[in-house]
Amino acid sequence: MAFLEVRDLTVAYGAIQGVRGVTFAVEQGQIVSLIGSNGAGKTTTLRTLSGLLRPVSGEVWLDGTPLHRLPAHEILAHGVAHSPEGRRLFARMTVEENLRLGAYTRRDEAGVVADLDRIYDLFPVLGQRRRAKAGLFSGGEQQMLAIGRALMSRPRLLMLDEPSMGLSPIMTQKIFDTVRDLRAEGTTVLLVEQNALAALALSDRAYVIDLGRTTLSGTGAELLADPRVQAAYLGEG
Ligand code: ATP
């Protein structure tokens, strides 16, 4: 069994089917991307994995533990952290206060302080302005803060929803370089992106989600070379 296994997930919003059969696997230490058009079901999938939505059917297993019936706080305790679409920071709170929210379940203050330092090493701009209000930062810096907050729970699986949204190409590259660094440190990353080109270039493996279903999968390089992916998601063909 893979580190993360998602099997035939279906999720509904009342009568609307958000996800209709999503199946994928993530090996430990890999970056795996879910790509697909607007409304394909990527965000719904991540929200279900973190327990914010309940699946109608299907299973989610992390390292041999079933997560699909657990509430969100228990899923977090099992090591799944989620940096949500749109970042969802607290604009009037400082950088450090936002980061500490990511560690709210932890009681090891020395470990929390060590992890704050680690985030400030990873993103020096946050360290230099740790007492500034989050709302004063640029979009890219806020994305760093959202990723930093998710890392504060010391996740085994880090899920990032559209980290490149609204960012310049240079800032997008910087965020993706950081995701690569996190993999080098052993963090497993599940990435949702509309920027398919950048996501596939970074990914060990990727899955295409179309109309709520996983339709294609392969290594990042295989999907980059796939004419169907080029035509539908890379603006070529
Ligand atoms: P995006 O990148 O735009 O977020 P996505 O691939 O993440 O796209 P989802 O947001 O998961 O797609 O949406 C999947 C489907 O579920 C879409 O048909 C969408 O309209 C529907 N949906 C999403 N959120 C809700 C909601 N709160 N209520 C009703 N339907 C929803």
Automatic annotation (TrEMBL):
Coiled coil: none annotated. It comes from Pseudonocardia asaccharolytica DSM 44247 = NBRC 16224. This is ABC transporter ATP-binding protein. Keywords: Amino-acid transport, ATP-binding, Nucleotide-binding, Transport. Residues 4-236 form the ABC transporter domain. Belongs to the ABC transporter superfamily. It comes from the Bacteria. Pfam families: ABC_tran (PF00005), BCA_ABC_TP_C (PF12399). GO terms for molecular function: ATP binding; ATP hydrolysis activity; branched-chain amino acid transmembrane transporter activity. InterPro entries: AAA+_ATPase, ABC_branched_ATPase_LivF/BraG, ABC_transporter-like_ATP-bd, ABC_transporter-like_CS, BCA_ABC_TP_C, BCAA_Transport_ATP-bd_LivF, P-loop_NTPase. One of its GO terms (biological process) is L-amino acid transport.
